[in-house]
Backbone:
C-alpha cells in the first residue's frame, strides 16, 4: 500500500529518527543529528514544533524524567523555551533534509504550529504526539488531505477511535460497549492515517512495553499500526515489526551524555544504526508468511528425508508388510507417505535389505 509522500508501508518498515528537542536549540547540532540519522539508515527525521507560551502555563512543573535528566530546577516553560527553534530554522532543516534525501516530519503541539507546518512548510504528513491525541482544539484544524501519524500513549482504545472520528468528521467507529466499524467510511480514511502504539515514559520499563497491543490495535481499528518506542534498547522495535508494526519511531542523539530531557532515553548513532539493521533483518526473516519448501532446503531433501526400502531380503511375489519394508535415508525413491499404496501388494522383484522399493 503506497501512501502519500512516498511512504510505502507494504514492502518495508518506515523508520523515523525522532530528534525531538535533542538539538538543544541549536540548528547546527540539529543538522549533525540529521546527517547521522541518514547515515544510520533512517527513512525520516522528526522534530517537534511548538510555542512554549501556547503549550504550557508559565508555572507548569516538569515531568519526573525531565527533572532527573536535566538536573535543573527551572519549570517546564523555561526548559521548553530554551529548546524552541525559530520558524526559519524549520525551513532550513526541511531544505537540508531534501538535500540529503531523507524525509522531514514535525510533531505539532499547538494550533499555530500546526497551521505553519501545513501551510508554510506544506508538509504532506503531520505527526500528532500522544499528549495531543485528545486535544480537539488542535485536531479540528488538521488538514484531512495530509497523511496523519498519531501516537497513542496515555490513551484508551475508545479515545483513539473518538479522535480519529473527530479528525475526519465521520463516525467511522461507533463506540458503545464495544467498537463497531462503518466499513464504507473506513475505506475513505484507511490510507490517510497510521496509529502508533506508544507508552509514555522515558525510558519505559520492559514490563510496560506491551508490544502485543500492536495486534490488538490492528484488530480493533483495522488500519495500519506502528510503534513509537521509548524502551532503553533496540530489541523492542524488532519485536514490534514481528508483530506487524509498519512504522517505527525512536529517539536519536549524538550523545546520551548531552544536557537535555530526552538524550538519556535516546539511541546514539551507532545504536540507531544497529536498530535499523535489526529491523531489516527481522523483515527478511519474516518472509512472505506462506509455508513452502524453500530454495535453500532443496539440497538437503535427499539427505534428510527417507525412501521406502526393504527391511529384510524380499522375494518376488512376496507381500509387502510392516515386517519387511521400512523407511530410511536417502530420499531417492518412493516417499514413506505412499506406504498405503504398497502394503499387502506383491513385490514385482527380488529385493535385498536396504534396496529401495519401486
Residues:
Amino acid at each position: 500500500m503506497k501512501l502519500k509522500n512516498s511512504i510505502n508501508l507494504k514492502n518495508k518498515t518506515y523508520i523515523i529518527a525522532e530528534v525531538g528537542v535533542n538539538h538543544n536549540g541549536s540548528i547546527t547540532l540539529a543538522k549533525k543529528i540529521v546527517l547521522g540519522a541518514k547515515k544510520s539508515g533512517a527513512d525520516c527525521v522528526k522534530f517537534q514544533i511548538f510555542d512554549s507560551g501556547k503549550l504550557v502555563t508559565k508555572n507548569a512543573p516538569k515531568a519526573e524524567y525531565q527533572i532527573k535528566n536535566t538536573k535543573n530546577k527551572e519549570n517546564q516553560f523555561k526548559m521548553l523555551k530554551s529548546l524552541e527553534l525559530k520558524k526559519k530554522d524549520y525551513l532550513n532543516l526541511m531544505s537540508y533534509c531534501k538535500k540529503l534525501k531523507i524525509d522531514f516530519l514535525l510533531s505539532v503541539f499547538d494550533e499555530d504550529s500546526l497551521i505553519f507546518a501545513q501551510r508554510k512548510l506544506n508538509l504532506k504528513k503531520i505527526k500528532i504526539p500522544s499528549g495531543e491525541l485528545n486535544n480537539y482544539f488542535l485536531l479540528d484544524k488538521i488538514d484531512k488531505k495530509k497523511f496523519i501519524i498519531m501516537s497513542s500513549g496515555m490513551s484508551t482504545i475508545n479515545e483513539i477511535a473518538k479522535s480519529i472520528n473527530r479528525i475526519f468528521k465521520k463516525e467511522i467507529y461507533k463506540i458503545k460497549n464495544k467498537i463497531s466499524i462503518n466499513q464504507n467510511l473506513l475505506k475513505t480514511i484507511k490510507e490517510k492515517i497510521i496509529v502508533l502504539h506508544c507508552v509514555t515514559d522515558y525510558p519505559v520499563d520492559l514490563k510496560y512495553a506491551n508490544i502485543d497491543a500492536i495486534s490488538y490495535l490492528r484488530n480493533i481499528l483495522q488500519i495500519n499500526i506502528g510503534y513509537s518506542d521509548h524502551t532503553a534498547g533496540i530489541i523492542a522495535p524488532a519485536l514490534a515489526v514481528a508483530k506487524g508494526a509498519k512504522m517505527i519511531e525512536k529517539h536519536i542523539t549524538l550523545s546520551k551524555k548531552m544536557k537535555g530531557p530526552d538524550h538519556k532515553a535516546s539511541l546514539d548513532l551507532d545504536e540507531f544504526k544497529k536498530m535499523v539493521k535489526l529491523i531489516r533483518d527481522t523483515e527478511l526473516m519474516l518472509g512472505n508468511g506462506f509455508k513452502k519448501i524453500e530454495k535453500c532446503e532443496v539440497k538437503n531433501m535427499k539427505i534428510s528425508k527417507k525412501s521406502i526400502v526393504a527391511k529384510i531380503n524380499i522375494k518376488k511375489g512376496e507381500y509387502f508388510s510392516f515386517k519387511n519394508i521400512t523407511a530410511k535415508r536417502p530420499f531417492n525413491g518412493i516417499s514413506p507417505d505412499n506406504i498405503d499404496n504398497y502394503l499387502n501388494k506383491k513385490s514385482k522383484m527380488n529385493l535385498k535389505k536396504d534396496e529401495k522399493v519401486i
User: Anything to note?
Assistant: The two ends are 51 Å apart (CA to CA).
